[in-house]
């Protein structure tokens, strides 16, 4: 049964109505110290008297006041805690018909040594608020035996973990996960959440990590990223722990993973490894996917384009819930180390290796519009095999020279060897079924890439409070060597032409980037600051590409496809910013002036490229903190997007002879305005969360893809500038618990709108794409015995073409899921997850449904259920 988008408001109303039952009375009071000063941010817990189960909680406001609403039942224990003060407890047993319980003023006493011992041994608050940090006590959220940190995060209010491992906390994507405040394998959150055991964690801290500059100067510059810190249990901080898993199945399926951690006061050492051919990923695959997609996307240009693509990188993506297409085998392992030499010096280093092998078989049927009344169809079958071996090395040194000076050095290096082999057959026909051309091709590409990046920042704090100076220098060196082979047979029945291509190619690409930024901050008094900065960057690139045609065993250089190119991008950017910081809000306004020079030369064609661009780049940022749990952020910024080196080369890439790609040396940089509004609301007492994210992006001289189709129906794609492009996005998320039935509901509508310009055969026409959708999720939990999660997401994408409204398209995508686990006698567990993907084209009548079911049963063994024997069936419905 499919649920239409219009039914989402009804579901919201139903859940809200359900949660309204049982609203009885409220509890209020005021918390002060022994001097009668109000205590803000004290944690107030309402517990069942019988079993100390958490019923509700909140924190006191700036006046020390608190109120717990919608309380029903009883009797209760009210417990108030605050760092450095002894807990306060009150017994509450309201009489029937009571609407409000006023506890009056409650005084907290200083904590003595004896009371401190009682606090350590007593019950822990499930959630504590410390200014801008929300801290969850891991022990208050039950997980199954041998669960990972990812399983633990799924239990915590305000945190969502998507099926691909992406974490969102309070509506924002988590950019990094640290362990005891230290880096863990660089900036890949999945390496921590999918490889560390949940039972090693004592607390989970969610906070907005400020920039290095803001942390040093103490001046909020508005640059923040959502981060999570995993505070380990004391015995794990000073000991060794780890886990190991291995499994085998039918069709030669194998899976294994393991990790070993040795922590002490001044040292963290972690080693992990994994391997499987079941598409299970414990790390980000961005490096690999960038390669496999990059070769087909290079020189197409543009950050966003409206285009149906055979590699499914544009147009309408089929959402498989984060799953990668095809069958993927991965082997990976690495080591991470943190060393604290002294209070002044800390070092972090990590090494990670990964091997990925992906096989994809694809069938494609594409309808192409040439004009208002002209179409043709392409049918394609392809088999792709790609491999990647990559090495990543990270190093960070943070040294405080003295109280006024510090230096931080960050270095990264990587090496990758990638291969990609594609065999495809393509047939192009008219609407009447007349064959126009056919193409059989076999391509092989091998790329060896290396890169190194270093960044050093020196910071000096003057005696005058707020005055500081920083100098940031960075450099990047990269080199890529690519070798390829192309064998294709092409028949053009329209012109009675047959062309066989047998080519080899070799390309060497070298790049170097050097940049420096100096920043000076002068306090103006009353927490107002003036910031002056100057940046200078030079980006050099050189490409040597040789293409040879092979005939009768002889190699002949193809001068039209070969190229020798080098370029030099240089920009100077002075800027001036005004900052105003207050307790509740911060405001930043200013502008940079950027002047960019581009010098390039196509040596084989004796063509010089000399361009100069000048732009003013204004910036405005406003942050308002209504409370620790309610924030409003508004950011407006502008930027220039210079065309890449591949986009500027007027050299033909004929790896697909009927879909040719070439660059454009006449490209101009695009100028982008971006406005973002982010509002977050999280009530720690009721666990109600409401997040909204709005963004608008408008670009002039937008870089998009122009397509030209000749009389043989060979398509040539080239990046070009168009007048403008507009994108609007709106995301919302509303979550709330239904405590009487131990459930939680989240609802999230989504709106996307893009207005762009399509270019076909040098004719521009408008194109509008809008998507309206939403999702609903329901979670039901009975401690660590039973869990059930139900989810549904629907979206309708409509595309309107200016050249002919009859070509407009409408596609409906649905994703319905259910997951659950049942634990019996603490020794047996049954797990199942089901996903049903439904795709429907209202324009063409195309419809496809894909059900995927995974089930498993486990038997726990050894002390504390440390061992597990599991029988799993993956894709049970085939």
Describe what this molecule looks like in 3D:
This protein has 878 residues and is mainly beta. Helices cover 7% and strands 64% of the residues. It has eight helices and 43 strands. Strand 37 (743-760) and strand 38 (763-782) form a beta hairpin.
* Range of helix content: under 10%
Identify the overall geometry.
Answer: globular
From the helix content, strand content and strand pairing, which structural class follows? mainly beta
- What integer value in Å does the Rg equal? 30 Å
Mean pLDDT over the residues: 83
Oligomer state equals single chain
Number of helices: 8
Low-confidence stretches: 1-23, 113-123, 287-322
How would you characterize the largest beta sheet?
Answer: 28 strands, mixed
The proportion of strand residues reads: over 45%
First-residue to last-residue Cα separation:
21 Å
Number-wise, the strands total 43
List keywords for this structure.
28-stranded mixed beta sheet; globular; single chain; 5-stranded mixed beta sheet; mainly beta; 8 helices; 878 residues
Topology readout:
Blueprint: H1 8-20, E1 25-32, E2 43-48, E3 54-59, E4 65-71, E5 76-82, E6 85-92, E7 100-107, H2 113-121, E8 127-130, E9 133-137, H3 149-154, E10 159-161, E11 167-169, E12 172-173, E13 176-179, H4 189-193, E14 201-210, H5 212-217, E15 224-232, H6 234-237, E16 239-248, E17 254-263, E18 267-276, H7 286-297, E19 327-340, E20 345-371, E21 374-400, E22 405-429, E23 435-461, E24 468-492, E25 497-525, E26 528-551, E27 554-557, E28 563-581, E29 585-602, E30 607-627, E31 630-641, H8 645-648, E32 652-653, E33 659-662, E34 670-683, E35 688-709, E36 715-738, E37 743-760, E38 763-782, E39 786-801, E40 809-824, E41 828-841, E42 847-861, E43 867-873
Parallel strand pairs: 1-7, 13-15, 33-36, 35-37
Antiparallel strand pairs: 1-4, 2-3, 2-5, 5-6, 8-9, 9-14, 10-11, 11-12, 14-15, 16-17, 17-18, 18-19, 19-20, 20-21, 21-22, 22-23, 23-24, 24-25, 25-26, 26-27, 26-28, 28-29, 29-30, 30-31, 31-34, 32-33, 34-35, 35-36, 36-37, 37-38, 38-39, 39-40, 40-41, 41-42, 42-43
């Amino acid at each position: 049964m499919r649920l239409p988008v219009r039914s989402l408001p009804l579901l919201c109303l139903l859940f809200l109505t359900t949660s309204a039952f049982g609203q009885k009375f409220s509890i209020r009071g005021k918390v002060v110290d022994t001097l009668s000063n109000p205590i803000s941010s004290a944690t107030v817990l309402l517990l069942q008297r019988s079993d100390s189960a958490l019923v509700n909680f909140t924190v006191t406001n700036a006046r020390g006041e608190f109120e717990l609403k919608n309380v029903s039942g009883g009797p209760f224990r009210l417990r108030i805690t605050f760092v450095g003060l002894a807990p306060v407890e009150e017994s509450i047993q309201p009489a029937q018909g009571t609407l409000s319980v006023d506890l009056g003023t409650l005084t907290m006493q200083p904590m003595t040594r004896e009371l401190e011992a009682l606090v350590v041994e007593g019950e822990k608050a499930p959630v504590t608020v410390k200014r801008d940090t929300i801290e969850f006590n891991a022990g208050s959220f039950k997980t199954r035996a041998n669960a990972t940190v990812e399983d633990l995060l799924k239990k915590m209010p305000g945190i969502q973990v998507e099926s691909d491992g992406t974490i969102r906390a309070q509506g924002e994507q988590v950019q990094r996960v640290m362990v005891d405040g230290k880096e863990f394998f660089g900036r890949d959150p999945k390496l921590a959440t999918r490889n560390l055991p949940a039972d090693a964690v004592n607390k989970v801290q969610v906070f907005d990590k400020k920039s290095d500059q803001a942390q040093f100067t103490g001046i909020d510059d508005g640059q923040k990223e959502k981060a999570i810190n995993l505070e380990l249990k004391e015995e794990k901080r000073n000991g060794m722990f780890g886990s190991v898993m291995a499994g085998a199945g039918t069709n030669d399926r194998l899976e294994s993973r393991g990790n070993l951690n040795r922590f002490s006061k001044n040292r963290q050492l972690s080693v992990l490894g994994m391997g499987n051919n079941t598409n299970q990923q414990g790390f980000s695959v961005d490096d690999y996917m960038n390669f496999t997609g990059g070769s087909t996307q290079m020189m197409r240009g543009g950050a966003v384009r409206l285009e149906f693509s055979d590699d499914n990188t544009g147009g309408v993506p089929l959402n498989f819930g984060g799953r990668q297409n095809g069958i993927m085998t991965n082997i990976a392992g690495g080591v991470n180390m943190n060393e604290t030499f002294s209070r002044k010096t800390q070092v972090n280093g990590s090494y990670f290796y990964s091997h990925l092998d992906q096989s994809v078989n694809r069938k494609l049927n594409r309808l192409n519009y040439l004009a208002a009344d002209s179409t043709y169809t392409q049918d394609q079958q392809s088999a792709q095999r790609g491999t990647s071996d990559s090495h990543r090395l990270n190093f960070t040194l943070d040294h405080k020279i003295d109280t006024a000076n510090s230096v931080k050095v960050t270095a990264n290096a990587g090496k990758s060897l990638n291969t990609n082999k594609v065999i495809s057959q393509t047939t192009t026909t008219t609407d009447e079924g007349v064959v126009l051309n056919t193409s059989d091709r076999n391509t092989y590409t091998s790329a060896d890439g290396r890169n190194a990046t270093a960044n050093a920042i020196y910071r000096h704090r003057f005696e005058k409070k707020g005055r500081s100076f920083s100098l940031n220098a960075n450099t990047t060196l990269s080199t890529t060597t690519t070798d390829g082979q192309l064998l294709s047979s092409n028949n053009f029945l329209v012109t009675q032409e047959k062309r066989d291509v047998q080519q080899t190619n070799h390309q060497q690409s070298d790049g170097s980037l050097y940049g420096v930024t100096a920043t000076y901050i002068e306090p103006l008094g009353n927490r107002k600051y003036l910031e002056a900065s100057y940046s200078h960057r030079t980006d050099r690139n050189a490409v040597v590409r040789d293409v040879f045609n092979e005939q009768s065993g002889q190699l002949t250089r193809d001068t039209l496809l070969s190229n020798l190119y080098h370029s030099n991008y240089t920009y100077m950017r002075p800027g001036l910013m005004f900052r105003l910081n207050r307790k509740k809000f911060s405001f930043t306004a200013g502008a940079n002036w950027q002047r960019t020079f581009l010098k390039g030369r196509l040596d084989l064609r004796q063509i010089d490229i000399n361009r100069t661009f000048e732009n003013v780049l204004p910036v405005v940022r406003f942050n308002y903190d209504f409370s620790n749990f309610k924030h409003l952020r508004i950011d407006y910024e502008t930027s220039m997007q210079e065309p890449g080196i591949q986009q500027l080369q007027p050299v033909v890439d004929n790896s697909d002879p009927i879909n040719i790609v070439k660059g454009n040396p006449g490209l101009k940089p695009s100028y982008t305005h971006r406005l973002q509004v982010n509002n977050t609301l999280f009530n720690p007492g009721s666990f109600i969360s409401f997040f909204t994210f709005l963004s608008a992006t408008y670009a002039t001289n937008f870089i998009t893809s122009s397509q030209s189709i000749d009389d043989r129906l060979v398509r040539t794609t080239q990046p070009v500038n168009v007048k403008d492009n507009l994108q609007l996005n709106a995301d919302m998320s509303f979550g709330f618990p239904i405590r009487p039935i131990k459930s939680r509901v989240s609802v999230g509508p989504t709106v996307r709108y893009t207005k762009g310009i399509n270019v076909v055969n040098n004719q521009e026409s408008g194109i509008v794409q809008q998507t309206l959708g939403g999702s609903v999720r329901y979670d039901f939990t009975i401690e660590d015995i039973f869990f059930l999660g139900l989810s549904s997401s629907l979206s309708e994408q409509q595309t309107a073409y200016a050249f002919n409204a009859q070509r407009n398209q409408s596609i409906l995508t649905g994703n319905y899921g259910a997951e659950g686990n049942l634990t019996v006698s603490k020794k047996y567990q049954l797990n199942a997850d089901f996903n049903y993907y439904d795709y429907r084209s209202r324009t063409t009548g195309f419809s496809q449904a894909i059900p995927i079911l995974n089930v498993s049963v486990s038997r726990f063994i050894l002390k504390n259920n440390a061992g597990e024997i599991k029988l799993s069936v993956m894709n049970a419905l085939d």
